[in-house]
Design a protein that fits this description.
By secondary structure, the protein is an all-alpha fold. Helix content is 87%, strand content 0%. The model has no long low-confidence stretch (mean pLDDT 84).
Length: 70
């Protein structure tokens, strides 16, 4: 499952991360249709941040388990 989500997941995190940075500093002026769905973009970005945190915890638990088995 992780291999399937690998590159696509990275691109999603990258796009939403760049959007959040741009919404704060306004490097690039976005079209009106993007600004109309701003709340949905922030909602999906928040979900991705939560999923990333859960994956971080899951991976760190696996690495601690592997170290304890050595």
């Amino acid at each position: 499952m992780a291999k399937k989500f690998g590159m696509m997941g990275f691109l999603l995190y990258l796009i939403f991360g760049l959007y959040f940075i741009n919404s704060t500093f306004d490097f690039i002026t976005l079209p009106d249709f993007v600004l109309n769905i701003d709340k949905w973009i922030i909602f999906v970005g928040g979900i991705l941040i939560i999923v990333g945190g859960i994956n971080y915890i899951r991976v760190s638990k696996k690495s601690r388990l592997r170290q304890s088995l050595r």
